[in-house]
Structures are given as C-alpha cells and as structure tokens.
TrEMBL record:
GO CC annotations, alphabetized: plasma membrane
Entry's Gene Ontology molecular function annotations: antiporter activity; xenobiotic transmembrane transporter activity
UniProt KW keywords: Cell membrane, Membrane, Transmembrane, Transmembrane helix, Transport
Keyword Flavoprotein in record: no
Transmembrane segments: 34-54, 66-89, 110-131, 151-170
Presence of keyword DNA repair: no
Subcellular location, record wording: Cell membrane
InterPro entries xrefs: MATE_fam, Membrane_Transporter-Flippase
Membrane topology type: Multi-pass membrane protein
Name of the protein: Multi antimicrobial extrusion protein (Na(+)/drug antiporter), MATE family of MDR efflux pumps
Major localization class: membrane
A Pfam family annotated for this UniProt entry: MatE
Amino acid sequence: MHNNPVEKAGLFSSAAESKTKGVDTLLGDPKKAILKLAIPMIVAMSVQNIYQLVDTYWVSGLGADALAAMGFVFPFFFISMSLSNGLGIGGGAAISRRIGARDKEGADEVAVHTIILMLILVLVFSIPFYTFAPQIFTLVGAGKTTGLAVAYARVIFLGSIVVFFTNVANSIIRSEGDSKRAMQAMVLGAGLNIILDPIFIYTLKLGIAGAAWATLVSLAILHS
C-alpha cells in the first residue's frame, strides 16, 4: 500500500467518507443551495474591498504623497486579486461538478491541480513585479512618490502567495458548499486588519509598508 498524494489533499475536499453539511447542501435542493451559497459569497466579496479602504484611511495620516503612492499600487493589487479569484472560481466550479457526481477522488485531484497552478501564477506574477518595481512605477508616472509606492508594493508582491492562497482556498471551500466559513474568514480577516494597520504603520513605525504587512499578516493568521 502506498500513500497517494491526492488523498492527502483531502483537506481541500470535504466530500470525505462522512459527508459534511456543505456537501449535503450541494447535493440537496438546488434552490436552497443557491440561497445558502450566494448570500455569504456576496458578503465575502464585498469585505475584500475593506482591506483597501482601511489601508487608505490609516495611510492618509502619513501625508498626501503616501496616499498618492497607494493609488499607483492598487491596480497591481487588484490584478493579483483578479488572477487568484479567477483561478479559484474555475477550480471551485470543477470541484463542485465532481462533488455533484460523487467523485471524491476527482474533486481532490482538481484541488491539487488548482493549488499547483496557483503556485505557478504566484511565481510568474510576483518575481518580475518585485524585481522591477522601481522601473514599473517610474514608467506609470509615480514621480516623487515612486519610493513610497515601491515600499508598499514590494511587501505585497513578496507576500502574494498569501493573497493568492486566501482567494483560492476560500473558493475551494465555497465549492464544497461551505460558503459561510469562507465568509467568516474574510470578515475576521478584515477586522484583524483594522486592528493591525495602526500598530504596524505608527506603533512599529513601518510607515506605508506597515499597511501592506498588516494586510498580509491578517490574511496569513486566519489561513494558517
């Protein structure tokens, strides 16, 4: 007998021998399933924007240049969010279909392949952006705020694995019919970010980079 790595990935699929309530939801009445899945999903997606709003609020205390620098970084942050959300939604849809077909092994295989693709995307996205951040922000016209933009962005790029994993993992959880748990993680993460932002920015004197660290730490703690 050998250890199957796909079976070890069962932590990404709740369709185990004893079905969870989430899987029962998927296999039950479609109308009830849509309601149970949609509302928490809408809340979770809305909460994602709170991270940027909170960062903007606390960074505004550092001055106009710091606030402007964040404006140059946000589009790149949203690119990472879009890539990870797209991958998570695609993988989650495939997992849901296999759960519906009562194919546990197939669901686990999709989860593993989704994680592998996520790691590849992280490398493709983070390494070039981290390495050439000064040139990128100079090119887009950051001007005198380039240094501040680089300080914030490099933390985000360095920790992009956290951003990608959070969105992909939450999508996999939702695909198993447990969108409520994914919503709770996002809400708690946003609350933790509200607490950590002033600590990292002002108490620890990390400045604009502290806002990025607070975001990454809050996401990492909830998904560790």
